Input
Amino acid sequence: MTGFTTTTTGVAFLMSSMFGAGQGAANTVNIVTDQGVQATTTVESAITGTDQIEAYVRAQYSDTPILIDIARCESRFHQFNKDGTVVRGEVNNKDVGIMQINEIYHAEAATKMGVNIYSTEGNVAFGKYLYQKYGVSPWSASSRCWSDNAVAKK
Output
């Protein structure tokens, strides 16, 4: 039980420390639920440019460099398309953002934690949470890209 409390507290601190800094750009997000219902919402994100995002990812994941490689492989450090919409997976359009967080599997949990996976900050934070909970398995589909880099760096 102590490990759970420590992890939960650590995740809560991680999430709370990543939000509320500065005014961000508004980006439109199109969401399609499993029932086919479409919704559009605006996402505030303080970090929107690809260079800014890459620097942010590298800073947030400095203690877990494999996540930097995964972000590069999954999205090439993109959270938003040129038109301001959130990047979606090429193979699975339910994967969103820098870390390609799958909406079907993780959107509800992220929402309950108060994390917006459609923002740069939230996507990166939830990626860290997934890594702490499951290791690299959520990104196993792209492992041919990032696992070679991880082996080469050892």
About this structure: The mean pLDDT is 76.
